[in-house]
Design a protein that fits this description.
The structure is a single chain. With 339 residues, the protein is α/β, with parallel strands linked by helices. 26% of the residues lie in helices and 27% in strands. The protein has a seven-stranded parallel sheet, with helices on both faces. A five-stranded parallel sheet has the order 14-13-15-16-17. The protein starts with a strand and ends with a helix.
């Protein structure tokens, strides 16, 4: 009762990284609330799946193991969460803002009339005073995310309904093992008691999973271009610089929308979140949606001809000049020094 739950996304018998990141955050929230952290793992052939999640500080693992639960389909997984939550009454439920999470979250929140905040960039615990009603709510989940096209940061609360539900993109939270030998309770449920046979009406006949063409999320150095790069050819300079630095190339939403770079390289609230040791922002103004995806970089260098660009405010170093002047010089000197 009143615990923090995390829905763990499964790829075969492996728990997705985004779920492990949410378990790390869930543990911190549970500590603050003085409650337990619980994980839900639903799939097929989940032998010893608890060994993957317990080290993140999970107190109870709910395992649902049945042939029809992998690959993911909407109805059985929705039934599992809805019926489990009616039984356990959690105060918070977190899941990844993935293809699966975006399908599952709204179905569960709608069935439980609980509400859902999508694509959160921060999760905190706090209070809220409703002055009109004269009520103060304690220990609410602050669901924080950019809103109105990234022009403001909105803090969303759900005072009355439970569970408080939020989805978070992969890479936004940090994944940290709490204790390799953390002891928690493992509950293996009878799936038939939660999922009616009619929920298996949709069967996945074939799946095609394509691996990412780059490692943007795991790269130690990221060179990102914005609309200021001017063209697809402008991005060729960044790829040349990236080759010298053994880096990956990313882009702002404006650059992607303009067709300068592929969508899978987009960094920010509507793209991927990165945590590199070095982030070089080239021709990027620094809208809040983009900053949400790279603000935790170790060192940020901004290359911009606008001294007042918002990204300069969070940059460790600012190179004031056009990308056409600066990038070729960087390539030249890195080539010279790498010999």
């Amino acid at each position: 009762m009143n615990n923090v739950f995390v829905y763990c996304e499964m790829e075969g018998a492996h728990v997705a990284d985004v779920s492990l990141e949410l378990l790390t955050k869930g543990r911190k929230l549970a500590n603050e609330l003085g409650c337990q952290l619980e994980a839900i793992c639903a799939g097929s052939d989940l032998t010893d799946v608890e060994k993957q999640v317990l080290p993140y500080g999970v107190d109870r693992v709910h395992v649902f193991d049945a042939p029809g639960l992998f690959p993911y389909t909407s109805l059985p997984h929705s039934s599992i969460l809805v019926n489990l939550f009616k039984q356990e009454k959690p105060q918070i439920c977190l899941m990844g803002a993935t293809v699966i999470g975006r399908d599952l979250g709204p179905r569960v929140s709608s069935a439980l009339t609980s509400g859902l905040t999508a694509d959160c960039t921060q999760l905190e615990i706090g209070s809220h005073e409703d002055k009109k009603a004269g009520i103060t709510y304690e220990n609410l989940l602050y669901q924080i995310r950019p809103a109105f096209g990234g022009n403001i940061v909105a803090t969303i609360i759900n005072p009355e309904h439970r569970p408080q539900m939020a989805t978070v993109r992969e890479g936004v939270m940090k994944k940290e093992i709490l204790d390799e030998n953390y002891k928690g309770e493992v509950i293996r449920h009878d799936v038939a008691k939660f999922v009616p046979e009619t929920d298996y009406v949709v069967k996945v006949i074939d799946r095609h999973v394509e691996k990412a063409k780059h490692n943007l999320k795991g790269a130690p150095i990221v060179i990102a271009g914005g609309y200021g790069m001017g063209s697809k050819e402008g991005f060729d300079m960044l790829f040349e610089l990236a080759k010298e630095l053994h880096a990956e190339v990313g882009a702002s939403r404006a650059a992607v929308d303009a067709g300068f770079c592929d969508h899978d390289r987009q960094i920010g609230q509507t793209g991927v979140t990165v945590h590199p040791k070095l982030y070089i922002a080239c021709g990027i103004s620094g809208q809040i949606q983009h900053i949400a995806g790279m603000q935790d970089a170790g060192i940020i260098i901004s290359v911009n001809n606008d001294e007042n660009a918002p990204i300069n405010a969070i940059a460790d170093y600012v190179i004031n000049g056009t990308v056409e002047e600066v990038i070729p010089k960087m390539i030249k000197y890195y080539k010279k020094n790498s010999k």
